[in-house]
Design brief:
The protein is an alpha+beta fold and 219 residues long. Helix content is 62%, strand content 7%.
Length: 219
């Protein structure tokens, strides 16, 4: 499909996308309408990667000119910084078309092989963002789980793991609630202490699971 850019307008076949809507020339064929819709949906999913890659390239190539241009970018400061960071952390070869930019943002602080593992999990299981966010939190807690000695851990009944999982799930749910809470209704230091405490608790519980997955359990 022929795509043309003129000033602030983008023309796709018989459709012209403007800053405030879409104009149509004549009565396009159904297939042309479908292709235009496909482009819009793909653009919506890709725009944050485009912006991030554009910013990272400009920063490396243009120096002072980049610093001047960045002031003209019509996005919120936090959006610009987030897009730039995620695009820099996740190479194009690891990005997945089937999932959103927000999925990628959840794993941007992980190592490349860890990103690969989690993004593959999201695609293979078609995880919505809410479920994927919880899976990533579990994964990150496991990464921090300490190795406990045999003296620290004794054989226990398998049912303990059901209770452990409940504690992990409730801790993660509480962390999510605290992180999303309006900062004005909770003292920041108190909130950060609670989040840190819950994460340490989750790390300990994961260490139990990790230890007993490798050892026979007593009956």
């Amino acid at each position: 499909m022929n795509i043309q850019v003129k000033q602030n307008d983008l023309t796709i076949g018989s459709f012209t996308l403007t800053p405030t809507g879409m104009n149509t020339q004549g009565v396009p064929k159904f297939d042309e309408w479908v292709k235009c819709g496909d482009f819009i949906q793909k653009a919506n999913k890709s725009v944050h990667f485009w912006l991030g890659d554009w910013l990272n390239f400009g920063e490396g190539a243009y120096g002072e000119e980049f610093a001047q241009e960045i002031d003209e970018v019509k996005f919120k400061y936090q959006t610009v910084q987030n897009d730039k960071w995620v695009a820099k952390r996740i190479a194009p070869s690891r990005r997945r078309e089937a999932i959103s930019f927000s999925h990628h943002a959840e794993v941007a602080d992980l190592e490349p092989d860890e990103q690969e593992e989690m993004l593959t999990l999201a695609v293979d299981n078609k995880l919505p963002l809410s479920q994927f966010r919880k899976a990533v939190r579990h994964f990150k807690l496991k990464l921090d789980a300490p190795e406990l000695s045999d003296e620290q851990l004794k054989p226990t009944d398998p049912k303990v793991f059901e209770d452990v999982q409940k504690v992990i799930d409730s801790s993660i749910a509480t962390v999510e609630m605290l992180e999303n809470m309006n900062i004005e209704v909770l003292d920041p230091s108190a909130r950060d202490w609670l989040i840190s405490h819950l994460k340490r608790a989750g790390t300990f519980y994961f260490s139990l699971v990790k230890k007993y997955e490798q050892k026979p359990l007593s009956g």
